[in-house]
Amino acid sequence: MLNFEFNGRRMSAFEGDTIASALYASGVRIFSRSFKYHRPRGLLCVSGRCPNCLMSVDGVPNVKACTERVRAGMKVKSQNCWPSLEHDIFSVIDKIGRFLPVGFYYKTFINPPIEWSRVEWIIRRLTGLGDIEEEIASATGKGPKDGRSIHSSSFEHLNLQADVAVIGGGPSGIFAALEAGNAGARVVLVDDQPALGGHLRYSGETLSIDVATGEGAYSGLKSSAVASTLEKAVRDRPNMTVLDNSTAFGIYESNLIGIVRGNSVIRLRAEQLVFATGAHEFPSVFQNNDLPEVFLGRGIQRLVNLYGVIPGKRAVVVSNNDSGLGVARTLMDAGVKLEAYIDSRKAVGAPETLAEIEDAKVQTFLGWAVKEARGSKHVSSVVICEVDNEGELVHGTERVVSCDLVSLSTGFETEAWLLNQTGSRTIYDELLREFIPRELKPTVYVCGDLTGIHDLNIAIMQGKVAGLSAAVNLPAMERSSELKVEYQRKSLETYSRLVSQYEGKYREGMKRTRGPDVLVVEYPGSDKMRKRFVCVCEDVVAKDISLATFEGFDDIETLKRYSTVTMGPCQGKMCSMPSLHLCSRVTGRSIAQTGRTVSRPPYVPVAMGALAGAELHPVKLTGIHYKHIELGARIMDMGEWKRPHVYTSVEEEYKAVRESVGVIDVSTLGRLDVKGRDAGKLLDFVYTHIFSTLKVGKSRYGVICDDAGIVLDDGTVTRLSETHYFITTTTGNVEFVEEWLVWWATALRLDAYITNVTAGLGAVNVAGPKARDLLQKLTTVDLSSGAFPYMSSAEGEVAGVPCILLRIGFVGETGWEIHFPAEFGEYFWDTLLEAGKEFGVKPFGVETQRVLRLEKKHVIVGQDTDALSNPFEADMAWTVKFEKEDFVGKAALVAAEKKEPERMLVGFVMKDSMVAHDGDQVFSQDGSRHVGFVTSSKFSPKVGRCVGMALVTPEHYKEGSLIRVKSDDALNGAEVTLAPFYDPEGKRLRA
Asked: Are residues 502 and 602 both part of a single domain?
């Protein structure tokens, strides 16, 4: 047993139960409140094609409870009701429905304009469906991927290709897939149910299949057993892929099919398309036809035969086709007392079944129809009347039948919405009273109930014809053996001939049993009767359709938009045919002349996240990334890289670096290898500093500027040999710097070769007073201050790993930046932490690093500089060497040096405890003038107050200048300092 929560109550379910089946079995009858009138609504279709069971599940609104499987611990809530589902105070709106006709908001609140603004929020609050909660508990990226539902903010996109795509997994679709597969085609079968078989899974009938179909062996077997056998046959084929729990929501150009399967969005491209999408039932229109316990016939069969739920005690079956007889038999076999069988026809197509019903002492009414369902929150009885030949109810023939369950088998509508999206046409067949396919596009085939014919023998043969036709017409089949193709074509001719014969017999039978059209029952004074719902999604009643048509919206497209019929969650599946019949009747046009609305994707509601474009931004992980996860680091995004933000706390990590030793993963730094006879000459030209005179084994800080003298990037340049330099860049600029160097090396025809080695190297910075002690345990390289001074480099092994060691100090302590082959990353990291235990080593993250570097006033290009900053404004004039003959940006920098800068980068210390934010504005001491903005700001444990850097006007570029920082709408005093906040003389760096 599985336990879940419904409106705060603990409920139980069996494995495989849907929310709806579990609730119904537990006695719940009201599943929702209607869109406009807040009327109680119960289960109707039990197949996900109506709006009656939409609920909020784990915070996700509008989930179809009749198709959503129960998961342990899930929280289910009802929607659009207050204070409770059983007692909704807003149901009072139903009592004033006469004052809320179709389009009332257009008519009532149009003048004066202010009226609409006053009532709009009320209307929107009182009508609608579910609400998106602020936090969706299940949006964790771990939603089910087996197609059961969408419960995640994370979606994956998949691409598939097939020779033949079969949409629909009923008997016709299965045989189409098998036939195409037997012909050698690669087949993908798409079905929105958890198992294949269509209505065979739940009809409960014993099958009668003609030998002529080639499948006579299945005759006499239970439908559910045949469904299981056929499903196994499909899944066992190596050239077939089954996508169950998958809904095809759109057909696009060149046979591209959009499919949603749980949290996966599948783009399926197929050479040939076979549509076996079937047909669905819809309710007829009579008084109170929306009451709870008014079901569609197949909905009852699903409850009984799929979930073992008895839907009621006393039932009335209402029908106008032979499927109603099957529902009656299902109910009797389940032990439900059948109070009456009502059929608008004078004769039925299965008289032997009708005889069984009559033998069970069930009242049968042929040539009758339902006028009204009675009850408030559930059905208590129905009123039935005789029907004349025109489909009108005969006055004075009313009879009342007590019941607690009503089954409607009052018509089918073909699921042709996807087919229409291919550009194929459907026409209305007056005999079948359904829209059936005509004028199919090339590469498109149809079969099964979609053709308007509801006969298993015909469905099997149609499926074989469609599947074989699709396979034979594949371009690849032209290369098959002539003998094989000839055999397939003869089989196709045989099946096609049989289909034609059987369809002819089916139509003859329809003519004999065809009754009057009672889809929308009429009666003298119909407009004064209780509500007759056409659209249960939008609460559109028959009177609304008549009024809208009278007001001039007599075209089906304008009627749709004015009345909102077919625009609800079911997208017309329950109301398309009833609204067409009503519009036809009021306008005097035929159904064919009235036509259908245009079918556009998506065919079913699809989560916006599923339709969103794929995330194409690359994500980069260092070779030590998963070690950071193991240490509990909080990960942050830094450009394309994932980096540790902090492991424990900034205070703890800061203390380790300043007092003992800390390690940080700096593998995200860009690394370039520059070799060649002219390597030094190239770097002299690109950087503002001089590197051709740099000694081997030494490092130097460098800045790159553009032609306008604007700072583009910075980093260190280390000379490894006379013709070999090792360059580091900022994390996000390595590709740009590489291109910049290659450009100038090519333009100047220099013998210099640039290689981006970032991905091949890992890097760790070991910093702190005890950094030397830690590293000396792992290497034979002499790390003493005399042998390895500040801004020096060496190549050697650390922990047995070949490394490049750079003695630099971004965080202001004695430290080494160690670069090594990336494949040694995790080993190297673990070794450092193990060796440093005796010194209290701790890993530190980016946030701590930012505090440490800010105390040293070390600049971050792109944060402390912007698109107008030159080295003089960034307080880096010492990096510019004009004695060079030429370099990029020299002319602009010569001019900049001769004039007063517009702003200067300065440090500041807040006067009080306020911590400024990056981007805060800076004002003069008296607060009258805006003089700049904060580029970096952090609380400094060393200073005990907030410190930062700001770009300000030149008059404040002096020690002790007073400024004010506006933060959180308050002006707070600060004092400018030009020296570093920590170790201004750099003694700790050089120790």
From this structure: no
Q: How many domains does the chain have?
A: 5
Query: Same domain for 451 and 386?
Result: no
Query: What angle is formed at CA 800 by the lines to CA 798 and CA 805, rounded to 5 degrees?
Result: 25
| HEC per residue, 217-245 | HHCCCEHHHHHHHHHHHHHCCCCEEEECC
CA 799 to chain centre: 47
DSSP conformation class of 144 = -
pTM across the whole model? 0.72
Domain boundary among 478, 495, 513: 513
User: Same domain, yes or no, for 392 and 296?
Assistant: yes
List beta partners, residue 703: 714
Whole-angstrom distance, CA of residue 628 vs CA of residue 741:
34
Phi/psi of residue 51, nearest 5 degrees: -95, 5
DSSP 420-431: HHTT-EEEEETT
Count of beta carbons in the 10 Å neighbourhood of residue 974: 27
Residue-wise DSSP of 279-328: EEE---B-BTTTSTTEEEHHHHHHHHHHH-----SEEEEEESSTHHHHHH
Tell me the C-alpha distance between 173 and 168, whole Å: 5
Ordered alpha helix ranges (H), 564-706: 576-587, 591-594, 608-611, 625-630, 650-659, 679-686
Q: Is 562 helix (H, G, I), strand (E, B) or coil?
A: helix
Task: Clarify whether residues 361 and 425 are in a common domain.
Answer: no
Domain with residue 924: its CATH number is: 2.40.30.110
Q: Based on the fold, state whether residues 274 and 419 are members of the same structural domain.
A: yes
Rounded to 5, what percent of the chain is helix, strand, coil? 30, 30, 40
Contacts of 826 (CB under 8 A, 6+ apart): 623, 624, 626, 627
Q: Is the peptide bond before 351 cis (omega within 30 degrees of 0)?
A: no
* CA angle 258–260–264, rounded 5-degree value: 115
DSSP tag of 687: B
Phi first, then psi, for residue 869 (nearest 5°) are -85, 130
- Distance between CA 377 and CA 39 in Å, rounded? 8
Domain assignment present for residue 715? The answer is no
User: What is the extent of the structural domain holding 585?
Assistant: 516-610
Q: Based on the domain organization, do 531 and 430 belong to the same domain?
A: no
pLDDT means over runs of 10, the chain (991 residues) = 95 96 96 93 94 92 93 93 91 85 76 69 71 50 44 78 97 97 94 95 93 90 96 96 96 96 92 97 95 97 97 97 96 97 95 95 96 94 93 91 97 95 95 95 96 96 95 76 68 90 95 89 60 92 91 92 89 92 91 90 86 80 97 94 97 98 98 98 98 97 97 97 98 96 97 97 98 97 96 97 96 97 98 97 98 97 95 96 96 96 96 94 95 97 97 96 93 96 94 91
Longest dimension (CA), the chain: 116
Under 8 Å CB-to-CB from 435, ≥6 apart: which residues?
413, 414, 416, 426, 427, 428, 429, 452, 596
Whether residues 434 and 507 fall in one domain: yes
The residues, ordered by sequence, that sit 6+ positions from 527 with a Cβ below 8 Å of its Cβ are: 542, 543, 546
Whether the CA torsion 212, 218, 222, 226 is positive or negative: it is: negative
- CATH number for the domain spanning 592: value is 1.10.10.1100
Q: Which residues contact 447 (CB under 8 A, 6 or more apart)?
A: 172, 173, 176, 274, 275, 276, 459, 462, 463, 465, 466, 467
> pLDDT digit string (tens) for 694-719?
999 999 999 999 999 999 999 999 99
CA distance 904 to 902: 7
Neighbours of 883 (CB within 10 A): 5
Domain boundary among 342, 375, 410: 410
Strand 662-665 relative to strand 842-843, pairing: parallel
Burial (Cβ within 10 Å: 0-12, 13-18, ≥19) of residue 477: middle
Q: Tokens 């700790």 identify what position?
A: 988
